[in-house]
Amino acid sequence: MLGGGSGERLCTPSTSAGPFRIFSVAGFQNRANDIVYCPPIVRQQSQHVEDSTAIIYFGGDVQDFPESMETNRDSRGYMKYNLENSAILLREAFPRSHIIVIRPVRMEFKTFSCFDNFVRGNNAGVPDHTPMNHALQHLEKLLQNLSQRLISIPENEILDQAAQAAAAAAAVAAAAAAAALTLSNATANSDSSSSSSTASDSSQEMDIDILQVQENVTVDADGAVIFPIVAGESAETETNNAHSGTNNATAAAAAVAANNSSSSNDITANSNANNSQESQQQQQQQQQQQSSQATTPPTNNVEHYNSGNNSNSNNDCAGVATATSATHTSPSLQQQQQSRVITDSNPLWWRENLNLDKSKLVLIGFSKGCVVLNQFIYEFHYLKTLTPDDSSMCRLLSRITDMYWLDGGHGGQKNTWITSRSLLETLTRMGMNIHVHLTPYQVQDDRRPWIRKEEKLFTEMLRRLNAPITRHLHYDNQPANLMTHFEVLQAFCQHVHALNQQQQQHLQQGNTPQQQQQQQGNNEQSQIISATANNGAGSSSNNTNLVDASEESSK
C-alpha cells in the first residue's frame, strides 16, 4: 500500500498510471470525499496547466469499491462497473485527461449513493436541491487538495508498487499461457472439431482466472476481459499472440536443440559442415528475431482505447497501430510518437505542474450521480444572477467545457431532470457543451413516466434556447433492464472513441481545426436528428405548451 501520511493511503496500482485510491480528501469546510484517480496515459504536447483536462465522474447507486460490492448480494452482479473499473473505462476513452472518480460520502445499505457533500438528500439519496449548497466550492477544494496529495507521495513508492503489480500480472499471464499450451498438446490427437471447442472453453477459463487475480480489469458486454493497458490490440488478439509466441518459442528451442545435437556429431566428421551449419543456425535465429519484431507492434506508438462491445473497435485499434508504422508516418503522428517516448522515459510525468483546479473540467454524472450535476445548475444560476458581483467562482465556472448526463435517475418522483426555464437559460448562457446519453431503462419505463417527461422538457427547451446539446438513445431495440442501464457507460465511451478516431483521421488528412469542428458538428447534428426521430412525430405539437409545462413542473 502506498502512503502519504496518516490516513493517506493509496491502493496498489496496476501500473504507474493507476488507478489510485486517495482517502478522505478535504474539501469545503469540514467536507471530505474518497477519490479514485487515474493520470493521463498519453502526454499532451502542451505543458501548460490550462491546456490539461480533468474528467470528474459521479457514479450511481451500487457503484463502490470492489470489496464493498463483493459483500453485497445485490451489487455483486455489477462488479465490472465498480468505481475503479469505471475509472479505467473513462481513462481508455479520455487517454489525455486526468480521471477523477468521486465516491459518495455515504452508501446507505451498501446500495444507495448519497452525495451529501454536494447536494442534500434523504437516506436513499433522493436530492433536495437548494439555490446554494457550496457544491462548486467543495469541488474546487477537492481538486486543489487532491493535487497536493498526489504530489506529496514519494516517487519510489509508486514505482515500486507498480513494478510488483506488473510482475505479478506477468507471472499470472505466463502461467495461464503455459497451462493453455499443455492442455492444447494433451488434446492434439483428438478430432479437430472437439479440439477446437475444448481450446475455446479453456481460453474462457483462463480469462476468468486472470480476472480473479488481477484487480484492474474490465469486461465487455460479451464477457471478454479488457485489460487496462493494452499494446494496441484487443485482449483476444494478444492472447492469440501469446499462444503463437509460446508455440514459436517451443519450436525454436527444439530446432536449436536438434541443431546442437547434429552439429556435435558433425564435428568429428567434417569441420566445414559444422561451420556451415552454425552459419545457417545464426541466420535462422536472425530471421526469427526479425519476424517476431515485425509482428510485434511498438507499444510507444499505440493509443489505448477500450474496445467495449463495438465490433469495429479491434479493427480501429489495429488501424491505428498500422498507421504509426515507420514507413507510413505522418508529421502529426511523428509528434505523438515523440511525446510517448518522453512519457516512457518518465512514467510519473503527469505529476509535473499538477494543478487540477486550473485544468479544463468535464463533468460526468451517471444515474444517481446526475443529481450532483443538477445541483451545479442551481448554483450556476445563483452565482450568475443572484450574486453577480461575487467573482470567487468565476474562474472555475469558465473552465467547465462539457457536462454529460448518462441515464440520470433517482428514487424520487420529481426533479430527475431540471425543467425550470430560468435555470436552463443561465446554463445556456455559460456556453458549455451539453451531452445526454439515455437507455430505455430510464426514459421508457411506464412505472416512472415523470422521468421521460422531464428529460423531454430538459432537452427540448435547451434546443429552443440554442444551447449546444446532443442527445443519444442507446439500446433502443433491447429490453429495458438494469444491465443495459449500466452498459450506457460502455456505449458512451464508444461514442467518445468514435469521435477521437474521426479527429485522428482529420489530423492525418491535414484538416484545419475549424474544419474539424465543423465536421464534428455535422456528425453530432446528424446523430441528434436520428435520436429525435425515435421520439415520435408528436414531439413538435407539444412545443407550444413547453414553457408553461416546464414552469409548472418546477414548482
From TrEMBL:
| Segments of this protein annotated with the region Disordered | 253-340, 504-555
Which regions are flagged for Polar residues bias?
295-304
Q: Low complexity bias located where?
A: 253-294, 306-332, 504-545
Q: Which InterPro entries match?
A: C2orf69_mit
Signal peptide residue numbers = none
This entry carries the following GO cellular component terms, namely:
mitochondrion
Q: What is this protein called?
A: UPF0565 protein C2orf69 homolog
**What gene codes for this chain?**
LOC115621415
